[in-house]
Amino acid sequence: MELTWYGHSTWYVTVGETDLLIDPFFDNPKTETDPGELDPDVVLITHGHDDHVADVGEFTDATLGGAPEVVGHLADQHGFAEDDVVGFNIGGTVEFGDAFVTMHRADHTNGLESGFNAPSAGMPAGYIIGDTKPTQVADADATTFYHAGDTGLMTEMRDVIGPFLEPDAAAVPVGDHFTMGPMQAAVAVDWLDVDHAFPMHYDTFPPIEIDTDDFEREVEATGSDAETHVLAGDETVDLSEL
């Protein structure tokens, strides 16, 4: 499984022959990528805030996946074909090509349109993306990546996502102010019991500028065995090689 971080919460995940783009927002200081350069099979949306959906209209040839309220609105706004829209919800797993995507809640707010003034669009989400369908029988050969979305610390990470969905790697927001900061994000990493942790959702705007060294120190302070990886924007890693 390959992961590319395009800054903020924008990730490109390759599972087998299937490419998934999460939260397309390329107007951020960590990336020099033109969204027109990418050709994902699937675009996943965690929630409707502008800094997670701003560039979704660049990918109308892809399948759009997410909560029905959000993807329904985006499909109407940008002209996605009805057959290319997959609405699913918290707890559900959908097979997209070679990838199995499970939606889980995120503790945050949600909305549509610009300015954060529109009516709520329901529960925000995170995604657990794997190359096998999740079951209660552990599969040592499976590879699973958790994109936590915009969230605060929540005990579901400790009680459900970690022990039952078993992510190998997690991208967690660390910028504070609108999401977890370094300390709570580090606790999340410990609770998830992942091998690899990637910070996201930081340095995009002044309120979420941080020193990522703080996150690395906080992860170490939890006693977690997770290895932290602070990626440069547009950097790709192969989980099998870490």
Description:
With 242 residues, this protein is α/β, with parallel strands linked by helices. The radius of gyration is 16 Å and the shape is globular. A hairpin with a 2-residue loop joins strand 7 (93-96) and strand 8. It has helices at residues 50-53, 68-78, 156-165, 182-192, 212-222; strands at 2-5, 11-15, 18-22, 42-44, 63-66, 85-87, 93-96, 99-105, 125-130, 144-147, 169-173, 196-200, 227-228, 235-238. The strands form two sheets. Strands 6-5-4-3-2-1-14 form a seven-stranded mixed beta sheet, with helices on one face. It has a seven-stranded mixed beta sheet with strand order 7-8-9-10-11-12-13, covered by helices on one side.
Estimated radius of gyration: 16 Å
Q: How many individual β-strands?
A: 14
CATH classification class: Alpha Beta
Tell me the CATH architecture: 4-Layer Sandwich
Measured between the Cα atoms of the first and last residue, the distance is: 11 Å
- Poorly predicted ranges: none
What is the overall silhouette? globular
Number of domains: 1
Strand content: 25-35%
Taking strands numbered 1, 2, ... along the chain, how are they ordered across the largest sheet?
A: 6-5-4-3-2-1-14
Topology order in helix (H) and strand (E) letters: EEEEHEHEEEEEHEHEHEE
The CATH H-level homologous superfamily? Ribonuclease Z/Hydroxyacylglutathione hydrolase-like
Q: Count up the helices.
A: 5
Which class of secondary structure composition applies to the elements? alpha/beta
Largest sheet: 7 strands, mixed
CATH topology: Metallo-beta-lactamase, Chain A
Helix content: 10-25%
